Amino acid sequence: MIKVIAFDVGNTITKNGLWLNKDVFRLALRLKKNYKVGLLSNIVKLFSFLPLYRHIYSSFDKKLVVLSCRVKTKKPKKEIYEIFIKNTGCLPDECLFIDDRLENILGAEKNGMKNILFTNYKNLIEEMLKLGITV
Asked: What structural domains does the chain harbor?
């Protein structure tokens, strides 16, 4: 059973890393009612200070916001997934990772996490429902 959901930020929570993807962001906030929800992102330090990103990060539990520029490793390296999983206090197969890049999804899968390759909002909802997630 899924207990934790991690979203990538670039091209998932945001569009092209520049604009908020309002549908996905609202979904992430709604999911917080029934799940632990966090972020797992390869972001450079410079972007992490932009107001849009600070707003996104502040909407989630700090220990579930794992940013590559802070932990000094990045997706798809196993260490970043291990850090996220440890921070959740859950088992890897209780974690779902959503990202728009196949190599990052495969990295999560190698670490035992469930995953969804993000292509668009409609597909995301369909895939979540298949996994039994209450959206």
From this structure: 4-130 (3.40.50.1000)
